[in-house]
Amino acid sequence: MPVDIAAVVVTYNSERHITDLLDSLPAAMGELTYSTVVVDNGSHDGTLEILDARQDCIVVRSTNDGYAAGMNRAVRRSPDASAILILNPDASLDAECVPRMLQVLRKPGIAVVAPRVREEDGSLSPTLRRGPTMGRVGGLSFTGWPVFTERIEDPREYEAEHEIDWAVGAILLVDAECYTKLGGMDESYFLYSEETDFSLRAKDAGWATVYTPAAGAMHVGGGSGESSVTHTMKILNRVRLYRRRSGTFLASIYMALTVLTEVRRAMLGHDKSWPTVRALVVPSARPAPLGANDTFLPR
């Protein structure tokens, strides 16, 4: 039977957070009808035991073939809905959050809505992003200059509803028609860059991503942790995304700048950057799930 909202979650060793998320959904949905599908990507902690004990979600056991694949699987297992609520397991939603997001989503030409997100301590979580460009590859956020800064940290940018390039994918409400027309999330990324790619592809097709401060949520962040492997995936996927959108020549320069950026980070003490540098310059050292070890410039 169709519902207003199809809530979809992908878990991986999420026992510390998943209960808070699921418990927040009834108040967050207000009067909307909804379903909840949780795809577990091979957790080896107590996540599945927690999920199996609940009656308010459909649980799908899966091998870990990536976050985007898990999301697409969850959407396929959901009933028909006008909108898809993408959620990280370490998020929780404020009361009436989803109706407020849906009110924005129903405006013409909008495909993705991102709420105002706070950190666990209550401070603003800067989840809004500018699109990837050559100038923004160097991690120069400390300048505060938009030409060099992908991450938007100015609190004034979070005070009013406005269109954005993309937002961190911890809590996103997505038009179901758009999701279907775009073929869902691109599973080739495995982990990271899926939400960037989706919003940019939506924009290419004439659909906007919009931020609204009227809806609130909390995101703990790092619920599954970051390792040198996941950091490497994040950086490699940024290069792959840029290549797919800008072509080989510009992507070659982008990759060279990425290598320099990671060397700089490593020399400043970021211990996860050295393995990333190696993976950037040695294709065979790249994480196998990305399928990006057949060419020097990852694709």
TrEMBL record:
SUPFAM superfamilies, per the entry: Nucleotide-diphospho-sugar transferases
Domain (Glycosyltransferase 2-like): residue spans on this chain: 8-126
InterPro entries, A to Z: Glyco_trans_2-like (IPR001173), Nucleotide-diphossugar_trans (IPR029044)
Superkingdom as given in the UniProt entry: Bacteria
Pfam family, one: Glycos_transf_2
PANTHER family registered for this protein in UniProt: RHAMNOSYLTRANSFERASE WBBL
Full protein name: Glycosyltransferase family 2 protein
